[in-house]
Amino acid sequence: MRISTIAYIFKQGFKNIWRNLRFSLASIATMAACIFLFGVFLSLVMNFNNIVHAAEEGIAVVVYFDTGTKQEQIDQIGNDIEKQPGVADINYVSADEAWESFKDVYLEGEDESMEGAFKSNDNPLANSARYEVYLDDVEQQDTLVKYIEGLDGVRKVEKSEVAANTLSSFNRLMAYVSLAIVVILLAVAFFLIYNTITMGISVRQEEIGIMKLIGATDFFVRSPFVIEGILLGVIGAAIPLGILYGVYERVINYIVTKFHMLGSFLQFLSVNDVFRWLLPVGIGLGVGIGFFGSIFSVRKHLKV
Amino acid sequence: MIDLRDVSKSYSKGHPAISHMNLHVEKGEFVFIVGNSGSGKSTLIKLLLKELDPTSGTITVNGQRLNKMRRRKVAKYRRGIGVVFQDFRLLKDRNVYENVAFAQRVIERPTRIIKKRVPEMLTLVGLAEKYKSKPDQLSGGEQQRVALARALVNRPNLLLADEPTGNLDPKNSFEIMKLLEEINQRGTTVLVVTHNREIVNAFRKRVITMKKGVIVSDEQEGEYLNEN
């Protein structure tokens, strides 16, 4: 195909937007509304996921050892646990550290005699050396606990069953609900935009007929409409994404300052973290819907 | 140039629009197809443009069999035919120049050729000065000239005109017909569907008369037959 033809097709695509300004504005508004809703929803889901994930990371499985287990064996247990899937981090707390930490928390400010009651080589928490194992994914907890219980030298494994179960079922629920809402939103967006484009194109049915009778190929007739659809998609996506970008941090700041009780355990994502996903997905949606919407709606009129 | 053998076209109900039609038009001829509404004239044009397919029979135009033509080849086939309609069918949102240039864009002519050919055509039809006007700023006669320039800019072998003077006053009708005659003299085969008696009788060309989908007369230097 000639460069001049390609240039012509692009030019016509741009011009079509002006020629049918009312239709273009209607398409852009519909698209913008849908992508705005989608963006709000995606930001919510991403933040929820982040909060849940942060909570998951705080859950630890605690591993205690048989009395008299040697340090080498403890190290070996640590290595074995670290190799298991789903383990994010493993932290060794020796008996001395456990005692120090206990003293910090419970005996602070008490007089020396209280502390002196325990001789330095007589650690009351001698059996409290432990591993704290942090997980990426709470759903792996049960498998991991079973594995650790089977290791030699392990006396006891503590897990936070309730928290893990709640989080993992909450996680699963979130995944289903967000998938369902995304599918519904996309279907509604596609339907609305397809309708708008179809309306705009049926106005130009005569024009398409004339082009075909003069000997234009389907490709030649369709291409300017497709360019137009993609452009409308990009504009229709750029507007809500711009608004969301501007508004997002303000909303988060508002929530954090207004409800600082929540702020302490709700970990919100930064606008850039959200837009790392939202930007490509939003633009992709706009372009995709514009592309397929125009192809489908022109197709009906090409049979001349 | 045009060859129809035993061609019939029926729509879903009622009697056929065209029934067992045989027609042969030589290269370089000028032919009027006349008849009342419902005689099958417009169906004939649609068959020749491959807007419709015949129910039976074979159609050959420019050496190409239309019956078995693939959808992809239809566009290419139509580029060899100029076509003019009663309602002009111009692209309303584009000016005169762009309307004519469009036919050249369709066949992917380079821009420098388009810039040369379009003014030539507009001069031929007498509209060189109005190249910037939009169709709704022109009279009916002028719009039909634009349509004619568009039909001719690709130098087709065959020009089909479906009631080209149907929306024009007598003066403009004669001018358009004069242009068609001139084009024919330059070698293009011209087929004009009309029910304009004055014009048919004035030009003294081959006249094919249709009635209820059948050719009832075919005369060289013919006249518009009395109705009924």
Q: What brief labels describe this structure?
A:
heterodimer, A: 304 residues, alpha+beta, 2 domains, 72% helix, B: 228 residues, alpha/beta, 6-stranded mixed beta sheet, 4-stranded antiparallel beta sheet, 7 helices, 34% helix
Description:
- The complex is a heterodimer of chains A (304) and B (228).
- The radius of gyration of chain A is 31 Å and the shape is elongated.
- Chain A is α+β, with helices and mostly antiparallel strands.
- The mean pLDDT of chain A is 82.
- Chain A contains eleven helices and four strands; from the N terminus they run H-H-E-H-E-H-H-E-H-E-H-H-H-H-H.
- Chain B has a domain at 92-142 and 149-155.
- Helices cover 34% and strands 25% of the residues of chain B.
- Chain B has a six-stranded mixed sheet, sandwiched between helices. Chain B has a four-stranded antiparallel sheet with strand order 2-1-4-5, covered by helices on one side.
- In chain B, a hairpin with an 8-residue loop joins strand 1 and strand 2 (18-25).
- In chain B, helix 3 packs parallel to helix 5 (140-152).
- Chain B is globular, with a radius of gyration of 17 Å.
- The A-B interface holds A 1-2, 4-5, 8, 19, 206-207, 209-218, 220, 304 and B 49, 51, 72, 75-79, 81, 83, 89-93, 102-103, 105-108, 110-111, 150, 154.
Topology:
The complex is a heterodimer of chains A (304) and B (228).
Chain A: H1 3-19, H2 21-57, E1 60-65, H3 71-82, E2 87-93, H4 95-106, H5 112-116, E3 130-135, H6 141-149, E4 154-158, H7 161-203, H8 205-214, H9 218-258, H10 260-263, H11 271-299
Antiparallel strand pairs in A: 1-3, 1-4, 2-3
Helix pairs in contact in A: 1-9, 2-7, 2-9, 2-11, 7-11, 9-11
Chain B: E1 2-9, E2 18-25, E3 30-34, H1 41-48, E4 56-61, E5 64-65, H2 71-79, E6 81-85, H3 96-106, H4 111-124, H5 140-152, E7 158-162, H6 170-185, E8 189-194, H7 197-203, E9 206-211, E10 214-219
Parallel strand pairs in B: 3-8, 3-9, 6-7, 7-8
Antiparallel strand pairs in B: 1-2, 1-4, 4-5, 9-10
Helix pairs in contact in B: 3-4, 3-5, 4-5
